[in-house]
Write a structure and sequence with these properties.
Layout: H1 2-9, E1 12-14, E2 24-26, E3 32-34, H2 41-52, H3 57-61, E4 66-74, E5 80-87, H4 91-102, E6 110-112, E7 115-117, E8 119-127
Antiparallel strand pairs: 1-8, 2-3, 3-6, 4-5, 4-8, 6-7
Length: 133
């Protein structure tokens, strides 16, 4: 309930189901692979985004709404690099999502047989205006 209230308060609804993320994969050769994860999991990611994403003023004025799909590489040490927009919404919204991902804490890296590996993520972030905006 707290997360929902935060999302409504900041006029942002977040879809944290990553298109590239699969929790655990089993391969034929018994290699176990895990996907990168935001520290604290998807609820912590929702809270981070709702507290830190700023709806750009120009996008609000133009009534821009929709999703921005951001792609980034989570390195073996959890640092994020190679951030780019794979499907944008507006220049202002795209720039805000890039800023948000750049400022995010270090992620928990993907693993293969418990060894950290780098892995790409795609994260959709939705911008939705309230009726009052």
């Amino acid at each position: 309930m707290k997360v929902v209230a935060l999302l409504v308060f900041f006029s942002v609804f977040i879809s944290v189901a990553s298109l590239a993320q699969i929790d655990t994969l089993s391969h034929d050769d018994n290699i176990e692979t895990t996907a990168p994860e935001f520290p604290g999991g998807s609820i912590a990611l929702q809270e981070y985004i709702s507290k830190n994403l700023i709806y750009p003023k120009k996008a609000k004025q133009k009534r821009v709404q929709g999703k921005v799909y951001v792609q980034f590489l989570v390195k073996e040490d959890g640092n994020i690099t190679s951030i780019k927009i794979s499907k944008g919404l507006s220049k202002e919204c795209d720039e805000e999502v890039i800023r948000l991902i750049k400022d995010s804490p270090r992620w928990i890296p993907a693993t293969e047989d418990r060894v950290p590996i780098e892995n790409w993520m795609i994260l959709p972030i939705e911008f939705t205006l309230r009726n009052e905006d």
